[in-house]
């Protein structure tokens, strides 16, 4: 991975893990440079990052080491990818509001490179409406997130807020740069969105409540990853099954994401996933899906879901869709 990774380190207890992250990224062949906030320097001396990255560490916007360039513009242009890890609640709030009052935030405003944030904080901070609002706004602006994991937090709480492990972040970065091979280019994806309906009697149909936000987000992300997406909404199960057979005949490798709510009515037709690569969300189907996403209530109205036993937040559909496709592509790559 001969890529330039700029690591922005903000001031949380997980700063020590960022040192290991520099080491893992360097071992994976990346060229790493580090910028630290003033708070981050309270936790770890910049020398550790300097030694691990074999590069100068930046923390003062006005300390121009090279008179030929302006450091924050130079770094912003140098990076193929910027990681903010750990990303504090404070730094997330500043970026979401376009504030540029230190070396990290100024560089982040100056870059056109993709920026990924790995939040790490106390679980109550992470669940605070202001933090959620800032994360949602950044996701809308095109920032990507590496979600924190659950477990014991340094503050004594157990919950979501731990910085994702350096090995895992490095694997995601490697995967991203290998994405051309693993992306959804040449893949046809059929996504059901919202609700399918079944007949009740000759005059009536049964259709469940749905708002379609998850199916829509999964379809949008699949398009962004290069897939040819066929989106099915407001169809009857019968009609949809006919269409699915046609897609299967035309392209046996079609991937079917069944995100629509489908009511279970006695005697009514049931979606079949026989002979097809399918992912379902707990609906009753014929055949065995390659993955079933489990959630407490219907996915469009859930806050959390399980992907192969891994808990994923569903409150932001776009972030969920990114996590979903990342999980699937990583699984396929292994
Ligand atoms: C011991 C200690 C641990 C902290 N851990 C975190 C943390 O994990 N996440 C976080 O968002 N803030 C944490 N903070 C608070 C931040 O350091 C504080 O909000 C600071 O202003 C962040 O500055 P920065 O975003 O510029 O790095 C911690 C503070 C202390 C004293």
From TrEMBL:
SUPFAM superfamilies: CoaB-like (SSF102645), Homo-oligomeric flavin-containing Cys decarboxylases, HFCD (SSF52507). NCBIfam families: coaBC_dfp. GO terms for cellular component: phosphopantothenoylcysteine decarboxylase complex. Residues 3-174 form the Flavoprotein domain. GO terms for molecular function: FMN binding; phosphopantothenate--cysteine ligase activity; phosphopantothenoylcysteine decarboxylase activity. This is CoA biosynthesis protein CoaBC. One of its GO terms (biological process) is coenzyme A biosynthetic process. It comes from the Bacteria. It comes from Lysinibacillus macroides.
